[in-house]
Amino acid sequence: MTNKLVDNIIPQQPPIDSQSDVHVVKSRLEWGEPAFTILDVRDRNAFNQGHIMGAMPFPQDELVDRAGSIAKTRDIYVYGENDEQTAQAAQQLRSAGFVHVSELKGGLAAWKAVGGPTEGIIESRTPAGADDYNVVARLKNHAETQQKG
């Protein structure tokens, strides 16, 4: 017997798209929606340096073996080093019988660009949205700091 009251209050999620924009996942996180998993298929070192907050490390060479612990019907968002690796990983999961797999387009870089929360060694030293690799801005900040002294 199903609980009609709960069914009316909590709408069923539509199936996720085969490719998702980072905004979709970010809004699901912000709304506290349950029942989805984010998998990072990059190597362990890249994951440790920085990843989407809450993402689980599933290096691509171990992906299908490790994914056995996840329900086949769960919504899974996957990302890798680039969109090609992401697409390969998503295909591996689909071939293994996972039915709700979505490639997170742009991966970690796109996630950071929209201010999505991150964690990891580098991320802990970097304010949200700051770009460690923007040398011009860093030199300008350094010059301004030197002038004040």
From TrEMBL:
Coiled coil: none
A UniProt-annotated Pfam family: Rhodanese
Residue spans crossing the bilayer: none
InterPro entries reported for this sequence: GlpE_sulfurtransferase, Rhodanese-like_dom, Rhodanese-like_dom_sf
SUPFAM superfamilies: Rhodanese/Cell cycle control phosphatase (SSF52821)
Domain Rhodanese per the UniProt entry, residue ranges: 32-120
Protein name (Swiss-Prot/TrEMBL): Rhodanese
Organism: Scytonema hofmannii PCC 7110
The organism's taxonomic lineage, starting at the top: Bacteria, Bacillati, Cyanobacteriota, Cyanophyceae, Nostocales
